Amino acid sequence: MQEMNAMYRELGISSEVLAYGNKIEKELKERFDSIDENAEYNQMKVLLAMQKNKVSEACLYASSGYGYNDLGRDTLEDVYADAFHAEAALVRPQIACGTHALAVALSGNLRPGDELFSPVGKPYDTLEEVIGIRPSRGSLAEYGVTYRQTDLLPDGSFDYENIKKAINEKTKLVTIQRSKGYQTRPTLSVERIGELIAFVKNIKPDVICMVDNCYGEFVERIEPTDVGADLIVGSLIKNPGGGLAPIGGYIAGKKEYVENAAYRLTSPGLGKEVGATLGVNQPFFQGFFLAPTVVAGALKGAVFAANIYERLGFGVVPNAVESRHDIIQAVTFGVPEGVIEFCKGIQAAAPVDSYVEPEPWAMPGYDSDVIMAAGAFVQGSSIELSADGPIKPPYAVYFQGGLTWYHAKLGILMSLQKLIDKKIAVLPKQEA
Q: What is the domain extent for residue 257?
């Protein structure tokens, strides 16, 4: 124990902060055991999908050029489809990020004159330009797709009355964002998403229900495709890539809608038939295999952070005891210095670029300066230890990831250390 404490001190963690963290960790044993049980279930789900689709050594090889007959690519897409209980999947390195995956799914399934509807309020910041909420070249609005939304009620529940009023003959696709994004609303559980989809389908059965599944994969035992979603969309440098995928995104769901997206990703007439994998099949397969365990570590980190900061008097979403439906933990400081110091702590705990300090900057796709801490092996990988947030009221930071629980723990303790050093946070006297 003394040797361990000495290592933490060498990493910059005081004995007081470590003792405070260890006390809270011990109190979370039952919660952590439950997370591990879910991880075991999801691990078996992924393994069964791999065995069912006869993943072989040949699936790990690279293809080039057009990528015709890429066994690994086609098998991986079947694995994703089976694991998510979907008819088909599109899993490609040509998809640059989660926003790109969502843009492909939307543009592939919407036509001029159609209307896109969000029943859960404003979408994630980078989607505002995709849709045309903020004018941008090439937006859906420029192609004649209209948009409307219904905000959540103040208590976070669905505004069913106004959702019903908003759906009309032009409504082609309903987009549901599972995670909170840069908001302090609750993340939607898969069960709640299912209830919303059922309500929407009862009003208009032929409407396409798409779920932005980013940050949510493998957090629960079921996914939105299990409760009626026609499409789920996500990034491989978040949960399903397991920290190994170097790039990529996925779209899974009903075959027709996945194929529509594929024709947008490549071109009409080509669709899923082309797209070389260029040597990423192996980390795609291995990352997906590891994803349930990696997500479990990230979840433990999120629960740990909530308990750390709630007890110090800061607003946290979800709170310390709420059920979890994604890997993101929001902490509200009320002052920009809190967001900045938190991110500096996460960066200082990183295996890569630990010696640099993050600074707020005008990041593309956002309407305010954003600070991001991510000393990651894959640039921007949110399943790795990272934290970010816009420098605007209420001055909340969004923490996620950690390829292992132990690294997530260090990151949270380091963030706390930075806040204490700047007197933004104070340990309880009994813990000091």
A: 62-280
Q: What are φ and ψ of residue 363, in 5° steps? A: -75, 135
Measure the CA–CA gap between 238 and 374, rounded to whole angstroms: 13
What gap in Å lies between CA 343 and CA 339, rounded to an integer?
6
Dump the DSSP string for 229-288.
Answer: -SEEEEETTSGGGTTT--S-EEEEE-HHHHHHHHHHHS-TTTGGG----TT-HHHHHHHH
CA–CA separation, 94 vs 30, rounded Å? Answer: 41
Residue range 91-102: average pLDDT? 97
For 314-331, the pLDDT digits (tens) are 999 999 999 999 999 999
Closest CA to 176 of 204, 214, 145: 214
pLDDT band at 431 (very low <50, low <70, confident <90, very high): very low
Q: Looking at the 3D structure of the chain, how many domains does it have? A: 2
Mean pLDDT, the chain, whole residue set: 96
Q: Scan for tokens 């779209």, then name that residue.
A: 251
H helix and E strand count, the chain: 12, 12
In this structure, is residue 91 part of a structural domain?
A: yes
pLDDT in tens, 142-188: 999 999 999 999 999 999 999 999 999 999 999 999 998 777 788 99
Instruction: Give burial (CB, 10 Å; 0-12/13-18/19+) of 421.
Output: middle
Tokens at 270, concatenated: 């080509």
Q: Is residue 49 part of a domain?
A: no
